[in-house]
UniProtKB/TrEMBL annotation:
This is DUF488 family protein. PANTHER family: CYTOPLASMIC PROTEIN, CYTOPLASMIC PROTEIN-RELATED. It comes from Streptomyces thermocarboxydovorans. Pfam families: DUF488-N3i.
Length: 119
């Protein structure tokens, strides 16, 4: 399943190779029109909590701790159903996780892609 799950910025042009395109941010991307996003779904409930997102602030030095806390959040009731839905999507189709974050390798999309590939 690992080769079926990718992640990238929502601002990049959509491709037929993307498969299902799912936005995994809690907040809509700045300056992006909904029609231009070419999404199959916007799954807010799988995004990190507002408190965790604010604490992290996209500081690469905090990424390891962010990752640990976020993986813990994915087990909580508020995230579990959305996480299971992503798992189902990944089991049946190629899946591209989208985020507005500039540093995608230090984002929740990267954590989710790894988590989905490992399960």
């Amino acid at each position: 399943m690992a080769e079926q799950i990718t992640y990238r910025r929502v601002y990049e042009e959509a491709s037929p190779k993307d498969g299902k395109r799912v936005l995994v941010d809690r907040v809509w991307p700045r300056g992006m029109r909904k029609d231009d996003a070419h999404l199959d779904e916007w799954l807010r409930d799988v995004a990190p909590s507002t408190d965790l997102r604010r604490w992290y602030g996209h500081e690469p030095s905090r990424f390891a701790e962010f990752r640990r806390r976020y993986l813990s959040e994915l087990k909580d009731d508020g995230h579990r159903q959305a996480a299971e839905h992503l798992r189902d999507l990944a089991a049946h189709d190629k899946l591209t996780l989208l985020t507005a974050t500039k540093d995608v390798d230090h984002s929740q999309a990267a954590v989710l892609a790894e988590w989905l590939s490992d399960t």
